[in-house]
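Record type: monomer structure entry
Structure origin: computed from sequence
Chain ID: A
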Amino acid sequence: MNNETDRAMFDALIGQDVALAPSRSVALHLAKVALYEEKGVFALHPNIKPLLDSLLIDVGKLKLKAQVVSTFRTFAKQNALYAQGRTIPGSKVTNAMGGQSYHNYGLAFDLVVYKEDGREADKTDYTHVGVCGERLGLEWGGNFDDFGHFEYHPGFSWHELINQFKI
């Protein structure tokens, strides 16, 4: 664990007696991610990983390629991204602060999609990939101008997650 905020999150997750099984599943997953410092696709919640695998197969069927560029983020990392274009130089890259992103719970991933010749895919290609993701039950970020972003909503919002864990 990298800092006191991450440790506090870990302690809150472990200490919860959450009645809702899905949110308990998220809590246990995040505790494992924090404890073992898992990264990349290994940091995704087990319920979203098969959806990512299926989406990558569908991307191939579209004659496209995709690279997973972001999965789990700590609250601290999310807050740093949120500060970009606000309190630190750069362009805004997110509207979500720490705790407000499904990335913070291992329930989101970002892809960069490429054409077969290596050029980045265009909006039309991303839209086809988005339709595939939605067909699998994922929420597609293209609906809010984040074309490579996908989220899995297991029956509750980030508001409920943050309240359940009292973070």
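Annotation 1: Residues 16-21 have pLDDT under 50 and may be disordered.
Annotation 2: The radius of gyration is 16 Å.
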